[in-house]
Write a structure and sequence with these properties.
The protein is mostly beta strands. It is built from 16 helices and 59 strands. The protein is elongated and about 120 Å long. One of its GO terms (cellular component) is cell outer membrane.
Length: 1138
């Protein structure tokens, strides 16, 4: 079948892929060179820069300041040795720094040393002998407790500005006075003071200080010390995420933060995860789903963005704002929580550094369902027909033909043909550098992943540029990023791909060269089903998407007085979407034919513009009162437009452009616009880190509401009390270093109600609304067809949160627990209106109410045992969402076995309850005698009149003698009672291990795939369970008899298909080796780490479906509707820098 191939619009041809890769590399090199210009100069800056000075009768201090401003140098010196108030005059023209300093300090007894842009001044002695008496040189090494050198540690002579930093081997050399002390410090370690005696060499060991780890957390429009936070915030470091190999940042978050749910609808190519903070926030009654209102606001570097397009390697930190106190500053967009993301930026005074990371791996589905082969399928099918009493003359022809000659048929394992072992790869390269007043960070990435199903996959690439420049009291910077996400998607003929694969008879051949397209299917004249060849659909149909995301923002910051920062920020985010679906002519067996090719294409563009002006003022009064004030203005505008077209009847399958279509043309498009204007502010105060209060507000005006309802006010307040900082706690502080209570209350808004709901909208109709004018040809007419909901207003969520944070044994053990209630009111719901209005419809009113309650706990332990260091992080979450009211008190939303109704939990399973299998006719008769009703004629109507031995017994819950939907009972919910995350980080010498576990407990799953494979009212393939169907010889089974047509409706929605959804999964396992620095240095590297790992290595569960974690959207939680399972990946990778 060499002639069978699929179109490759993503550029899988080698030459196209190579050209695209080279183009990306060229752009990256260009940006790399441009970004290097302001920072690389630090290496030889002092030799190349020249400046001019003309200063009369001034001080040395003023000359030093002039040099620092002109040349980006910075000085350190000992005020006890250097007289900077000495009067001097200097006039130089176009001289190097060495020439200037030689002239400035000529005959003054002052000497200098230059390291890059750092100039150290020191006093010369009268003679070399005297210098030896007064000064000495100390050589040392700074290491951690395992003996590993610490690079970049600060070594400072106490009481002076004389200092240096350690090199790549942790070594330093410093000239100091006799009998002095050295202060040695490094981020994440306890600062150490060392007295220097007569020794000339020294080894200094720093001890890790957990007290300073993650000390600062990001909050809205600023940062705050973790110990000062009185609201609910969870921080996740980018280092943790970087050890989870994925091109999708959302997927890396599962189990990382209590209260943050990461749900996967499918493992198909082009799919992304959905995020949810603390359960359901809003409910939309027209379709039971409101993902826009239940997804958190994502802020990337201060600008609303899309996490799906973010490279995980670019993330520095993530903060999850979970209550009103922390999220209210974002007002109407924050009711469902806020996720703040900081990306990596360069640091000032840092040498250029290049990093590279990459991984390669193989992926596959972890399990396949057990379905019948050809012989087993024939056996079950015959059994079903015999039990139904079907005359053999009416049996499908394939049964007799198979028994006569099985070689006429195939024995195709459709899952084996459909699922594939995919290859995944990802590469990241980054560059950072910084001078005295500027920094730059540049990164690029590329990833390509084969889907777990045939002929699918996705590809991502992009770059990010961040930079900052400081000039005196001004600071400015920008963030620019571009990402593209392209995918070859699943294709089908209208049915779920999984159902096509599992239900397709194994009798059918995969290929048939006589068919148009070359693929097989149902054999003509054999009476086979119309299930399709999913492999053929994926191979032949061109179903692709590509999305480009461009984000650009810049800021200008001014500090007029100490502590006051005024900042202006402007940004634009643009999304360009493109999709294409081309169905060629094909013949896939007798049942699936497409005689006319068709094409559908769409283009869309979304533009988000944001302007913000903020003023921050921070002040510490009398070293006790810490005050922070914020005031800001914001304006946001969102535009969207799309254009779609379709056509059919192409000359041939190669001519698949829209212009080649001959008939059935259709063109459509939309254009929308919305805006938001806001005033916001916050006051943050703490007294000696004991008592904290934070109050914030946001006043939002939205174009989505009518005049009079456009503006909403959303305030919040939080209180904190750290008992451990009270004087009476002093004796306990070595054991309990923090004991903080938190309490918060506030209101959050939701404007995600759709557009133009409050104004009349016009619709057209080609028939009913057309009008003739002056006897001429009719013209298309428009009319108002929906009654406007002019009084709708903001949905409001009121939050109450109480929490406690405890730190023990110098923060070795960190504990936190909190409980919350969030009440959403004024939710939109539908109310019927009188037909007298002229509209046969309903209007939206703010009558809905929803209540979500929950609690969270987290325990983090930092430990050591010999040479082993370990961090253990356990978090637990629980929530329950109940619909309290709707405009219609009898409101009911149903999705299969799921129900949502007033007074009930969102997404409950309501099914018929089974009571075993009838073993004989006597049991059937006894049951029907005891259960039934008398009709109006007085005749007895049994409950299950057509039941036979082997059928399922169903319970009549309300006792009315009939089986109907009123007999369904609640058997649980798809929402887990408890979600668990457990993260392990181990380090022993040069080895490290990372393990991330996640689990859900207390949830139910409706196994719809099992329903499809065990039902008897169709003619498709069966699961192997059908071989264990009840027969008189096989009575000890829970599988009912096989009977064609299923007269007793054994496959009705019942407890038979509801399963325990508990599971615990090892999401990520990674074992790494870090090459010692001394060997890295020989290779010209600063670090090198290699690792092997696996994702979703195992799942402990009793669930019989593909994956207990799929099918997890709001309102459909736990409904496994044939979703493609998540893959299991094995990979290896490396990361190095130089």
């Amino acid at each position: 079948m060499d002639n069978i191939m699929k179109c490759t619009p993503l550029g899988e041809q080698k030459s196209l892929w190579l050209r695209k890769t080279l183009l990306i590399m060229k752009f990256f090199v260009l940006f790399l060179l441009l970004g290097t210009i302001p920072c690389w100069a630090g290496v030889a800056y002092s030799q190349n820069v020249k400046m001019s000075l003309d200063m009369e009768n001034t001080t040395v201090h003023d000359v030093i300041n002039a040099i620092e401003k002109k040349g980006e140098f910075y000085f350190t010196y000992n005020l006890n040795q250097i007289n900077v108030n000495r009067k001097v005059s200097i006039k130089v023209e176009n001289k190097t720094i060495n020439q200037i300093l030689d002239q400035l300090f000529s005959k003054s007894g002052i000497d200098y040393k230059i390291e890059n842009r750092h100039i150290v001044l020191y006093k010369q002695a009268a003679s070399e002998v005297e210098a030896v008496k007064q000064q000495k040189s100390i050589n040392g090494i700074v290491a951690d407790e395992q003996g590993e050198p610490i690079i970049g540690a600060s070594v400072l002579e106490k009481g002076t500005t004389n200092g240096t930093i350690t090199d790549l081997d942790g070594r330093f050399t410093l000239s100091i006075g006799k009998g002095t002390e050295l202060i040695v410090s490094y981020v994440g370690y306890t600062t150490k003071t060392v007295k220097i005696g007569n020794q000339s060499t020294i080894k200094i060991v720093l001890i890790e200080d957990t007290k300073t780890l993650d000390e600062v957390v990001v909050i809205g429009y600023g940062t705050q010390k973790k110990s000062d936070v009185s609201g609910s915030v969870t921080s996740i470091s980018g280092d943790k995420l970087s050890k989870i190999p994925t091109a999708n940042a959302e997927m890396a978050l599962q189990g990382m933060a209590p209260g943050l749910s990461v749900n996967f609808g499918s493992g198909a190519a082009g799919s992304s995860a959905t995020l949810q903070v603390r359960g359901v926030t809003s409910w939309k009654d027209d379709d039971g789903e409101n993902s826009e209102s239940n997804g958190p606001l994502v802020i990337i570097d201060g600008v609303p963005g899309n996490m799906s397009y973010l490279n995980p390697e670019d993330i520095k930190s993530i903060s999850v704002l979970k209550d009103a106190a922390t999220a209210a500053i974002y007002g109407s967009r924050s009711a469902a929580g806020v996720i703040l993301i900081e990306t990596h930026r360069g640091t000032m005074n840092s040498a250029p550094k290049i990093t590279f990371s990459g991984y390669w791996g193989l992926s596959a589905v972890p399990k396949r369902l057990e379905v019948c082969n050809s012989a087993e399928f024939i056996k079950v099918r015959k059994m079903a027909l015999i039990n139904a009493g079907t005359d053999e003359s009416r049996w499908p022809k394939y049964i007799s033909e198979y028994e006569r000659d099985p070689s006429q048929f195939a024995d195709t394992d459709w899952q084996k043909e459909y699922y594939q072992r995919g290859f995944t790869q990802k590469y990241n390269i980054g560059y950072t550098a910084g001078s005295a007043n500027s920094n730059v960070s540049l990164s690029a990435f590329y990833s390509k992943t084969d889907g777990v199903t045939i002929a699918t996959g996705d590809e991502k690439f992009g770059f990010r540029l961040n930079s900052d420049v400081t000039r005196g009291k001004f600071k400015m910077g920008e963030s620019v990023s571009y990402s593209r996400w392209s995918a070859d998607l699943e294709s089908n003929s209208g049915f779920s791909s999984i159902y096509q694969v599992t239900n397709m008879e194994p009798l059918a051949f995969l290929y048939d060269e006589n068919n148009d397209g070359g693929y097989g299917g149902a054999i003509s004249g054999m009476g086979m089903s119309d299930a399709g060849n999913q492999v053929a659909f994926n191979k032949l149909i061109d179903n692709t998407s590509s999305n480009d995301y461009i984000a650009a923002s810049g800021y200008l910051q001014y500090e007029p007085i100490k502590g006051l920062i005024v900042k202006f920020n402007a940004s634009r985010n643009m999304y360009f979407g493109k999709s294409r679906l081309f169905k060629p002519t094909y013949e896939i067996g007798a049942a699936k034919r497409n005689t006319m090719a068709s094409l559908s294409e769409s283009r869309s563009q979304t533009t988000n513009d944001l302007l913000e002006l903020t003023a921050n003022y921070d002040k510490t009064i009398a070293e006790k009162h810490n005050l922070s004030l914020l005031l800001g203005l914001s304006q946001e505008e969102n535009k969207y437009e799309d254009l779609s077209a379709s056509g059919s009847d192409f000359e041939n399958n190669s001519m698949s452009l829209m212009g080649h279509a001959k008939s059935n043309y259709s063109v459509g498009g939309t254009k929308t616009r919305s805006a938001l204007r806001s005033l916001f502010g916050r006051v943050n105060y703490n007294y000696m880190m004991r008592y904290m209060i934070m109050a914030s507000f946001r006043y939002d005006g939205s174009s989505r509401f009518a005049k009079g309802n456009k503006w909403g006010f959303f305030p919040s307040v939080s209180l904190g009390w750290n008992i451990a900082n009270e004087p009476f706690w002093e004796n306990l502080k070595e054991t309990v270093s923090m004991f903080k209570f938190r309490l918060s209350y506030g209101a959050l808004g939701n404007q995600n109600i759709g557009l133009y709901r409050y104004i009349p909208t016009l619709s057209y109709n080609n028939h009913a609304l057309n009008y003739p004018f002056d006897g001429r040809e009719t013209s298309m007419g428009y009319a108002i067809t929906a009654f406007p909901s002019s009084d709708i207003k903001w949905e409001t969520t009121v939050y109450k949160n109480i929490g406690v944070d405890i730190s023990l044994w110098n923060n070795k053990l960190e504990l936190s627990a909190e409980a919350y209630i969030k009440n959403t009111s004024d939710m939109l719901s539908s109310r019927n209106i009188s037909l007298a209005t002229g509209y046969n419809s309903s209007i939206l009113v703010n009558d809905g109410k929803l209540r979500t309650t929950g609690f969270e706990m987290q325990a983090i332990y930092h430990g050591k045992a010999g040479g082993l260091k370990y961090d253990l992080d356990l978090n637990l979450s629980h929530y329950k969402s109940v619909l309290k009211s709707m405009a219609n008190p009898d409101y009911l939303y149903e999705y299969g076995a799921l129900r949502t109704y007033v007074g009930g939990e969102i997404g409950e399973f309501w099914v018929y309850q089974t009571a075993g299998i009838f073993q004989n006719q006597a049991e059937v008769d006894e049951w029907n005698t005891a259960h039934g009703y008398k009709d109006q004629n007085g005749n007895w109507q049994p409950l299950q009149p057509v039941a036979k031995p082997g059928d399922i017994r169903f319970i009549d819950q309300n006792g009315d003698g009939m089986l109907d939907t009123n007999d369904r009972v609640k058997v649980g919910s798809g929402t887990p009672k408890v979600s668990l995350g457990f993260n392990i980080n181990l380090a022993y010498k040069d080895f490290d291990l990372v393990a991330n576990f996640y689990g859900d407990f207390g949830a139910k799953r409706y196994n719809y795939t099992k329903y499809q494979l065990e039902r008897m009212d169709h003619v498709f393939n069966y699961g192997k369970n059908a071989l264990n169907a009840w027969t008189p010889e096989n009575p000890d089974t829970d599988i009912p008899r096989a009977v064609s047509g299923d007269p007793n409706k054994n496959s009705r929605t019942s407890t038979r298909f509801v399963e325990n959804g508990d599971y615990l999964r090892l999401n990520n396992l990674q074992i790494g080796y870090n090459l010692p620095v001394k060997y890295c240095k020989k290779m010209g590297l600063s670090n090198l780490r290699i690792y092997v790992g696996a994702t979703r290595l195992f799942t402990i569960t009793n669930y019989k479906g593909y994956d207990p974690s799929t099918g997890s959207s709001v309102g459909q939680m736990g409904y496994d509707y044939a979703a493609i399972p998540l893959s299991r990946d094995f990979m290896m990778g490396l990361k190095f820098g130089f």
